[in-house]
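Section 3.1: Structural characterization of target chains.
Under the original work plan, the team committed to producing a structural model for every single-chain target entering the pipeline before any wet-lab resources were allocated. The record below documents one such target. The sequence was received from the expression subgroup and is listed exactly as submitted; it comprises 164 residues.
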Amino acid sequence: MFRRSVGVCRSLRAVVCAFTFTLSFVSCGGGGNGTAAPTSPTSPSAPTVSSVTVAAPDSSAKPGDSSQFTATAVMSNNTTQTVTNQATWQSSAASVATVSSTGFVTAVTAGEVDIRATFQSVMGSAHVTVRVPTPVTFTVCGTVKEQGTTIGLSDATVIAKGTA
């Protein structure tokens, strides 16, 4: 809407004319009736999960070992959120290692396994190798001593076979 008002001022010494313009703007809602259309406030969208990272205390274990794994979600706004207890956990080979609903992993037997955590349809995983320890054999060569006697390594040559 545009309005114009005109004011004329006169004085004995000079004639001064002044124009005053008043502008008013009215938003139309598309209906053409001069009323503004209602608008809803826009709110920022909630961040979504971009990726899930699964952290293992160690990438290898032996049968019987247990450890707590953790799941962390990386959000679309670059923040992180620990989701260990909200994630769904799964073992790719339950015969090698099992995982509880809270990410507690127990190694069962030798093999390779992926421990997976899924949060809001996004999955992450950690690879674990379960190894059965190889027995180590020691052969001591040196002077025969009485049974039960402790000898130092400087007194004998030790030959080791296998891995610890």
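Residues 17 and 96 are 97 Å apart (CA to CA).
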